Amino acid sequence: MNALVRRGAARAGIPCIWRGKCFSSGNEPAESRQVTPMLRHLMYKIKSTGPITVAEYMKEVLTNPAKGYYVHHDMLGEKGDFITSPEISQIFGELLGVWFVSEWISSGKSTAFQLVELGPGRGTLTGDILRVFSQLGSVLKNCDISVHLVEVSPKLSEIQALTLTEEKLPLERDADSLVYMKGVSKSGIPVSWYRDLKDVPKGYSFYLAHEFFDVLPVHKFQKTPQGWREVLVDIDPQVSDKLRFVLAPCATPAEAFIQHDERRDHVEVCPDAGVIIQELAQRIGLTGGAALIADYGHDGTKTDTFRGFCGHRLHDVLIAPGTADLTADVDFSFLRRMAQGKVASLGPVEQRTFLKNMGIDVRLKVLLDKADEASVKQQLLRGYDMLMNPQKMGERFNFFALLPHQRLHGASQERNARQSKTPTSSVAGFGELVWQ
After folding, report:
1. Helix, strand or coil for residue 105?
2. Is residue 318 within 8 Å of residue 233, measured between CB atoms?
3. Is the pLDDT of residue 178 over 90?
4. For the whole model, what pTM was predicted?
5. I need a labelling partner for 399 at 20 to 30 A (CA). Which of 138, 212, 392, 430 fits?
């Protein structure tokens, strides 16, 4: 598998073989089962309270303040467990910057806007977007821009600060405040850090969530002759230091999120994603702006997508918890439903379609013409191939947007509320980019 392909691997890479009322998490040899601090913590928890949901398992493994993977690991880049699109090619972030400027123009050129990124990684994507804002300074010169980053990892927030500010001015830190860190970008734009979207000031904002929703905790359900049963994580009775999946003996509360007419026999639901989408929809409906969501996902068609990544390879989700990234594909049909018609939704559209509509071919040609060294040209071409190739990220990654109803001219409120997947040409990326 190409080392750069993160989370796009087919789910077949981790077998989930149902055996009666439990299924295997894989067949890794005993010597690979590392007893990590997180595994000890989870085993104590399960022994105390019983089997836990997959959602609780993901939340503990990824964001536990003492032992969580995101809290204490620098998981990005070639030495980490995965590489994201901004690390693959500068063009990706540049085109997203153009998307926000295009939306700002199309919605009336407000005198100020907030750029809000959820889970900003190393800050590379926001950095590329801010570079575009600087290059289009003549267009944005009368606009007051501020950056607001929602990040739970102290380690990553420090990396983001270094990427975006280069310590141009000393950072302000206040661990007890909702804004736990403040700085100024290289181009003079104020940057603030928060732990929760709800703490970000309300106002005209453009929201960005790139590979954010796919790490939110999911509940997994299997259809049985007795109805839906939730998949839980338990201790294997045969091996004292090994976890296994089991089925709950009766209905559990998260079952309420499953559609009554659901036809799949296995589903994953993410209540946390629903809460965030409702918050975004409420904000955009009241104050305007837009949200752009880019992630691996599907439109209500896939079943079991829960998987782990360690060192750019698929990793058994129940082995050595705390040492690998955990992820599940985003169900965009669920996000659309959770918007509850408060805003219009567009997509999902495949990444290669979105980037082509945004003019990636033109931008690539400009950069190739400017490049003097053959190695730089090769790097640009490799990055383009990774982003656009259907076998790599081109079809596995999707773009989805939330916009105010009034932004889509000529479309009725009713149509906007239910949103077909037909692209709307007036919105860049979902139709061809047209500067107004």
Report:
1. helix
2. yes
3. yes
4. 0.86
5. 138
